Amino acid sequence: MTSDTDLKEAAPGADAAWQDDMRAGVRHVRDLAALPLSPAERAAAQQAAAAHKVRAPKAYLDLIDWDDPNDPIRAQVIPSPDELITAEGELGDPIGDHAFSPVPRLTHRHADRVLLFPTYQCAVYCRFCFRKESLTSIGRGYTREALEPALAYIAQHSEIREVILTGGDPLSLPDNALAEIRARIEAIPHVRLLRIHTRVPVALPSRITSGLTASLQGRLMVTVVTHFNHPREITPDTETACRTMRQAGFVLLNQSVLLKGVNDKVDVLEELCRELMYRLGVKPYYLHHGDLAPGMAHRRTTIAEGQALAAELRKRVSGICNPTYVIDLPDGGGKVPLGPSHIEGRDNETWRIRGQDGKVRAYREVVA
Q1: Which stretches in the chain have pLDDT values below 70?
Q2: N or C: which terminus of the chain carries fewer CB neighbours within 10 A?
Q3: How far is it, in rounded angstroms, from Cα 297 to Cα 287?
Q4: What is the pTM of this model?
């Protein structure tokens, strides 16, 4: 039986630098007392952290400018009393994880892919997380036995092509647990791709070791979806982590969340998307509209604001650097694009389409 509750385990001989990084950071509410916060800020943070888990490695805390109360890294991990205010319409299960969970630790919303939750623990707890209600209430780590019903379900459903490890953060698990999970999944013949959603390369880059990448290599194509939200999160250490994953043959994508006061300026998004692609070799994949997670109204932009940002970003950066602005609809409606439509109208075979320069042009379809 394996558990990652304290993130203490590692495969024999593995580099333990990441474990030291975790121990030197914030792991409990009481650790907030060591941070350079005012007494009032500390009391407020401790109150919010008592309601939702707090954890941040030292490497990520070191990115914070403590003299700036609006620092974008600080806003993502330091608890705020605003989190305790639930606005009308916010949801405990914003995207329908529980409603589409036929067996424990698995969500099956889309025909050809499933979410698999090997752990409900994270290396860093983001204050805006849409699963924070579940992560706080469930709080369970990895065991072989816990995954058996989910793995049996995948084996019984031949339409499943992708297994997405999420949680919690799967890369917070030790190498031997990851190797075990990968081997069990790749033994199911109809599964073609293993996808991993993780914040570890951002907040705990020392965890990305050759041992970790080796534990995930096998028959399956591997895609790692990172979660960078701000260009300040891109450092020499994250660059090294992403290079290690690229050299292992993994496809790297990034999902960002649009957060008020963090990355809701086009200059910030432009720098983030350029550096992800040009420096890290990570394709900006999705820019998520903020989910209806409880206590997150203070970090959520309007859809119109997001559309305006996405339209301006598209003018500034190439297609390969452009993420798709999406919303993950409640009740399992899935991700749908929110970008502006360039179609102004249609008259039979002739379409009126607005170009990026703002001019509307006629385009007549010519087909056999």
Answers
A1: 1-15, 132-139
A2: C
A3: 18
A4: 0.91
| 279-336 tens-digit pLDDT | 999 999 999 999 888 888 999 999 999 999 999 999 999 999 999 999 998 877 788 9
Give percent of the chain with pLDDT exceeding 70: 94
Condensed to tens digits (0 to 9), the pLDDT of residues 82-127 reads 888 888 988 877 777 788 999 999 999 999 999 999 998 899 989 8
Q: What's the one-letter identity of residue 93?
A: D
Answer left, alpha or beta for residue 332, where phi above 0 means left and psi between -120 and 50 means alpha: left
First to last CA, the chain: 63
